[in-house]
Write a structure and sequence with these properties.
The two termini are 42 Å apart. It is elongated, with a radius of gyration of 23 Å. The protein is mainly alpha-helical and 359 residues long. It has three domains: 69 residues, lambda repressor-like DNA-binding domains (434 Repressor (Amino-terminal Domain), Orthogonal Bundle); 188 residues, no CATH class; 43 residues, no CATH class. Helix content is 54%, strand content 5%. α5 crosses α14. The chain is built from 17 helices and four strands. It binds zinc ion. The site of zinc ion has 7 residues, from α8 and α9. Zinc ion binds next to α8 and α9.
């Protein structure tokens, strides 16, 4: 039998947004013990593990998962400075456990990400063009970015971060060869064009930086991911002509509908491609502020791109495993139902059908 994995205790605690002190109080343990358990300096007794498991909604085996913590190539999207450390840890910990689940689903269905090209010193824009060719993307706007990623075996893993301070992030999977994924904030307050840019930006990190295990990403990586996203969503060769006409508000609205990117992203692109001067851009930004477009742009009928891949994997898994599905993921049935409400409903219906048949 494998031994107690101190990392799993830390993840379970952080996922709940609890400090070591909070957890000590909840489990009637001492803070110093919790700290030693998480640091691997002391083994918790069976009693403690039982208590912790039922408190978190995991099975006892959860704490014995042979999961090795990778140096995290963790990458946050915009706005990260306003996020508290506890919140950041909570979101990352939830993403980690969901990614561990995803690895189980993917292995069950035999789905793996294909080999991705190495960067080889190429520029972000070159890599964006390269991926478009590799994935046979037709020129012009990408109709459905989420679908494109899923078709190419990159999962888009959505969950509500409970905050709008982070848009999404990329984190390498815990095991090599697992399904690559982009974690996306499914918070309903996020507009669809912003979500699309986030996905393209995180894809940039995946393509450009997946082998750079930096604890914090610097300005260079952020710039590169943005350049990748711009070229991937708005290839210079295809959008140049569209940006040549004077960029009036009416024109920007029209282009937003066509390219499915924000009006701000279009202005930045026009600047990058030297289609407008800096003073012209300044004038547009001024007007954007005046109309409140910096915070809220007109939606222009853009619809939400819903990821289906992960839901499909969960359903296949739940259907095959039936009542043993939660335990196969080291979850209690209650936590399973909370984390995967769609599949739980399905499993419930399946059970009902079975009962009817038996009668
Ligand atoms: Zn980033």
């Amino acid at each position: 039998m494998s031994s107690f994995n101190c990392e799993m205790l830390r993840i379970a605690r952080e996922e709940r947004g609890l400090s070591q002190k909070d957890l000590a109080r909840k489990l009637h343990a001492s803070q110093s013990d919790i700290s030693k358990f998480e640091g691997g300096e002391k083994m918790p007794g069976e009693d403690f593990i039982q208590k912790a498991a039922s408190f978190f909604g995991y099975t006892v085996e959860f704490f014995f998962r042979p999961f090795v913590a990778l140096p995290s190539g963790l990458v946050f999207h915009r706005k990260r400075s306003a996020l508290s450390a506890t919140e950041r840890k909570r979101i990352v910990a939830e993403a980690r456990v969901r990614m561990l689940d995803l690895a189980i689903f993917a292995e069950f269905s035999g789905i793996q990400s294909g080999a991705l090209p190495l960067r080889d010193g190429r520029s972000p824009e070159d890599m964006a063009r390269h991926i478009r060719i590799l994935w046979a993307v037709p020129s012009g706007p990408i109709a459905n970015l989420t679908k494109l990623l899923e078709k190419n075996k990159i999962a888009v893993l959505p969950f509500d971060f409970g905050s709008t301070f982070v848009d999404g992030f990329f984190m390498p999977p815990a095991e090599e060869g697992s399904l690559q994924c982009i974690v996306m904030n499914a918070n309903p307050a996020m507009p669809p064009d912003r979500r699309r840019f986030t996905i393209a930006h995180e894809l940039g990190h995946l393509i450009l930086h997946r082998n750079e295990f930096a604890e914090e990403t610097g300005k260079r990586q952020e710039n590169e991911a943005n350049l990748f996203a711009s070229e991937f969503l708005m290839p210079a060769a295809d959008i140049e002509e569209d940006l040549s006409a004077p960029l009036t508000f009416a024109r920007l609205r029209e282009l937003k509908s066509k390219w499915k990117v924000s009006m701000s992203a279009l202005v930045i692109r026009a600047q990058q491609l030297k289609k407008i001067s800096d003073s012209e851009a300044k004038r547009i930004w001024f007007l954007f502020s005046r109309y409140g477009y910096r915070k809220n742009e007109p939606v222009m009928g853009l619809s939400e791109e819903r990821p289906f891949g992960v839901t499909w994997l969960v359903r296949e898994f739940a259907k095959a495993k039936g009542t043993t599905a939660p335990a196969s993921l080291f979850l209690t049935p209650e936590l399973f139902a909370r984390r995967y409400p769609d599949s739980a409903g399905l499993a419930g219906r399946d059970r009902q059908e079975e009962c009817t048949r038996e009668e």
